[in-house]
Amino acid sequence: MKEIAATVKAVELINQNVYQITLKVDDLTFEAGQYLMVVLPTGEQVPYSIGSAPHELPFLTLYILVSDSASLASKVVEHIKSNDSITIKAPGGDCHIANGVLESNPENILLIAGGTGFAQIKSLYSHLVEQNFTGNVSFYWGLRTPEDVFAQGWLEEAHKYTPFTLDVIVNEKSDEWHGRSGWLYEAVLADHADLSKSAAFISGSVGMVYGTLDQLELKGLSKENCFSDVFAYAPHPDKPAL
Questions:
Q1: Beta-sheet pairing, 226-227 with 198-203
Q2: Do residues 101 and 27 make contact, with C-beta atoms less than 8 angstroms apart?
Q3: What residue spans of 131-183 are helical by DSSP H?
Q4: How many H-runs (helices) and E-runs (strands) does the chain carry?
Q5: Which one of 7, 36, 61, 216 has the fewest CB atoms closer than 10 angstroms to its CB?
Q6: How far apart, in whole angstroms, are the C-alpha atoms of residue 88 and residue 2?
Q7: pTM value surpassing 0.90
Q8: In 3-state terms, what secondary structure has residue 19?
């Protein structure tokens, strides 16, 4: 990863607690699915998936969830808001579209995101659209409530690209929600009964990633055909004894 100066173009609160950050960079190349590090004045380096695709350069998009004002994410957003330019390190991560999975011609490519894991999966989806990829691609985005949905404009445009499918699934449905609801893995398995010839990219919390993988493995998904940044830093939690 190399150190790069990034110009801050916009900081927007796009739902109750998610900020969309737009940066402009020079002299950067990356693969869809990679991440960058925001370097704070303290020396801390905080990783965020790049939420835009390579063809959108020189602009980069980040999605940062701020759960409370004392969080590290809040410190990152305040740092970005108060500076015209910030230092980043990029690119990083092996969970990306150029990792060889496309050469294996999977029957389906599953792009599965929980919460702001959306950023990484959005980059992958946008890149495949831009490349006119002709395989089967299914994007599943899971959120707790309808109020947690963001990037509405992008979702509307993405739905127009009919060769791929895109579903938003909320765990806690309401009378106002007319989309799919339930657990994320349930939606995937409802659409794909046999995953033995599929590949998956999963982005989210450690628990969400491994919990989803455990369920998909039961329907034939091979761990070798499943990719997540979580695998690089968090071991699989012990499965409960049956």
A1: parallel
A2: no
A3: 152-159
A4: 6, 12
A5: 7
A6: 8
A7: yes
A8: strand
